[in-house]
Amino acid sequence: MFDSIIIIIVVLLLLIGLFFMLAGTIGFVRFPDFYSRMHATGKCDTLGEGLMLFALIIYETGYEGLFKGDLQHASFVSIKIILLILFILLANPTSTHAIAKAAHDVGLQPWKKTDETQWMYDQDSGTDEVINGGEIK
Amino acid sequence: MTGIIQMQDIFLSVAVIIVIASFVSLYRGIEGPGIFNRIIAVNVIGTKTIVLLVLIGFIYERPDFFDIALVYAILNFIMTIAATRY
User: Fold this and answer.
1) What string of DSSP letters covers chain B?
2) ipTM higher than 0.85?
3) Model pLDDT for residues A48-59, shown as the tens digit of each residue
4) Quick one: closest CA in A to B78, which residue?
5) Inter-chain contact B81–A11, Cβ cutoff 8 Å?
6) Is the Cβ of A73 closer than 8 Å to some Cβ of chain B?
7) This prediction's pTM
């Protein structure tokens, strides 16, 4: 009984994390601008990854540890995954902020809704060197 | 309902969906205009790879993969900071 409850909680958390990760991927492909793409990936990836690793911690501690009696090994693995979650919660917003600051310093303009056709023209002709249609400050 | 084989099948399905999502992200990395889209695509794929490594560690029941996931997370963070500083 208790076994089934743990399995259900783990699968539910895995599915919610997978939903956030897929939403982040769809937003990353479909959004029109660099900044809005970074908005999608920065939140959804951090939250999805945290939830999935948390589900794996619950699985390891509850199922492997309490039911198979291997609690020492289970806590050893769980501490490693907790360290991984803490590092990701520190590092992922920092890297997102660094990328956004670098793009703003280079002079990448945010997307305005009024000049939509002009934006499409600029993005289609953009290469690595020519960012935002050559309008580098 | 709660066999160990079944849980490993669930982990394997989640891992396959993550691989598909990272390939969808790779489209933006190849096609995306500008260097910043490529940097953020590499960051996103690295984030997905960390979860994938932990899931592989659970599927094959080898705890060595968690150390690899930690090292991969640190390398991904350092690489992103270095690319933005450059």
Assistant:
1) ---HHHHHHHHHHHHHHHHHHHHHHHHHHHH-SSHHHHHHHHHHHHHHHHHHHHHHHHHTT-THHHHHHHHHHHHHHHHHHHHHH-
2) no
3) 888 999 998 888
4) A95
5) no
6) yes
7) 0.78
